[in-house]
TrEMBL record, chain A:
Protein name: Chaperone protein dnaJ 11, chloroplastic
Residue ranges with Low complexity bias: 163-178
Membrane-spanning ranges: none
Species in which this protein is naturally found: Ananas comosus (Pineapple)
Domain J: 70-133
UniProtKB/TrEMBL annotation, chain B:
Name of the protein in question: Heat shock 70 kDa protein 8
Stored SUPFAM superfamilies: Actin-like ATPase domain (SSF53067), Heat shock protein 70kD (HSP70), peptide-binding domain (SSF100920)
Organism name: Ananas comosus (Pineapple)
Pfam families, per database record: HSP70
Entries under InterPro entries matching the protein: ATPase_NBD (IPR043129), Heat_shock_70_CS (IPR018181), HSP70_peptide-bd_sf (IPR029047), Hsp_70_fam (IPR013126)
Amino acid sequence: MVIPPNHRLQPLQSLPISVFSMVAVASLSLSSPNSLLGLRNPPRPPPLPRRLRLRASAAAAAPSAAAGGTLYDVLGIGAAATGREIKAAYRRLARERHPDVVRGASADEFIRIHAAYATLSDPDQRARYDRSTSLSSAAAAAAAAAAAAAAAAAPPRGDRRPFSSSSSSSYAAPSFARSGRRTWETDQCW
Amino acid sequence: MAEQFYTVASDSETTGEDKAQTPLPNLAIGIDIGTSKCSVAVWNGTQVELLRNTRNQKLMRSYVMFKDDLPSGGVSEETAHDEKDILSGSAIFNMKRLIGRMDTDQVVHASKTLPFLIQTLDIGVRPFIAALVNNVWRATTPEEVLAIFLLELKGMAEMHLKCPIRNAVLTIPVSFSRFQHTRIERACAMAGLHVLRLMPEPTSVALLYAQQQQQLLHENMGSGCEKVALIFNMGAGYCDVAVTATAGGVSQIKALLGCPVGGEDILQNVLRHLLPNLDSFCADHSIEKIKSMGLLRIATQDAIHKLSRGQNVHINVDLADGTKVSRTLDQPEFEKVNEMVFEQCENLIKQCLLDAKLTAEDINDVILVGGCSNIPRIRSLVLGLCKKEEPYKDIEPLEAAVHGAALEGAIALGISDPSGSLDLLTIQATPLSLGIRADGDTFVPIIHRNTAIPARKEVVFTTSQDNQTEALIAVYEGEGMSVVENHLLGFFKVTGIPPASKGTAEISVCMDIDAANVLRVLAGVLMPGGKRALPPFIEVRMPTLDHGHGWCGQALVKLYGTALDLATIPKKMQR
């Protein structure tokens, strides 16, 4: 099995979106308008035959690979989702984005989905995550979205190391930008 | 080289000419190489079909007979070698227990009572094995034996399907190390087979279970809810446990655990019980003793099978040196002799449930597979721990693994089925932890066991010496706290660390497992805020080692253990 070699070794050279998603967008020229909507509430795709689904999901994968946001965004669910909803969202995304389904796709996307699921499906971890995001939103507000503050406040997940964030460069930079926006939304919720 | 001989033979005899004329079909076979029996299955377009040999068998004894000029696995012969022949010293069997193991391994040592020759020097290299050919011990290797056998299985499948076959999915025990995976792949390559996937046996059963649950849903008989199953698989060589959660055709392997304990150990325990001086009796490997050991083995095996149905059994065998084994073995005695085996099984199940963060109440179905699942004590033990009255019924214990492997073969090739019965996805998990050596001989896991695949994890280490400019990255796999208990997969150096006091430099080690279960290790120096140009990172696909990895590990520690050691950074300090 040949996978594309990992070229993203330098932490700071994070590309805005992953190579895979660029290719997907370019080759399909399908920057669908509902892809932005899809971030929070992706429409449930009707069951397609495997091959069809491959293409459709490759296109759908592109925008959200570029997106960062909260772990809830990653799974396309609301912050109030129940355990059952989290599980259902994870399964649905796994069916669309797992590299075994999207042949030749990078594993980054699924790794992110799984990490989000692993945190949110565990009540303790989820509570800790929720607490830290609300803390970070306060910090971000205080620092008026200064880049430094955003970085400090950013994702509480342990694997936010320089290397891993670069190796999944698809979401490093944009997630910082977006966490500000999401913070605002979370504030609204509260 | 002997290894090349088989590849050439397979190319010219079976596929060489066909290849030029017809393109290879989009086809993959599933192979279950059991310690004792093998089977082959294929997705025939509508369902999985188990292939039969010329003797109309779906399950074929795994062995290779070296008695004649041409070694033979007996797959396609008109008349099979009988068990007495197989136990004559001229045949090699139990390949799966020996492949990829070092001569320091307990399992290799326990195999010395087998009729063929096994020599160990306890230095961490491949053991010497040999078969008796015309009164001469002829050396071979487990890989070579397996390759010969696989070549016959491939030939049988090609006869059936009337086309050349290249792709295969093989099932393997959960406890196999990545080094053992490479040995299986090597044997397949020698037989002209390309390995699409190596599937841990219980996960292949999980795939079949997921398909059956989907089918029930289509027939409006299933609830559509998530179903959790505990799969207990015990064959002649290995015991595996897995917990799988399945819904909507997606199975998530929640936890996996296995150990090399199986029917062979049960047999050995009973043999030792009947003949306390078993080891010394087998030590000289004289032809008379091999012959009488063969008789005793057959009688004991038969007795164990009978004990699965009855309460007691009589064993009566005359041995070569005038010893006579004649006694009755009853169920309580049998269970007492094998107490350790049952205890190990019990621990595996308990630990696996713990790892899956589930209790017996969460389990919907208990699936019992493998030859040993017929042993009454094993059945009651597994069902008892899972608080179930009956095991899951719709799975054939001896055919489930190969069935799942054939399904995975079709899925991996992207074959689609209009009825949707291939619309399945298994999210696999890592059966063993992967990490590196640091802080002396400590094993520091980077990817823990039961992590979903694909996975990527990174840990930052630091230097252990002042002005240390190089660090040794020694990659190990296993659950031992110390590296000596684990399998060495490979090693390399990170160089060009800027000289500084110890504990300053940051060395990043990242492990990546892709969906095809390929492991890559990336390592290099990080320098926060530093302006100095740093050397490029190093990426290595593991394992890199060939045989003798036990030896390598010792040499590494001895030569570079202190000077190039890494240190972990306390959790608090990690950013």
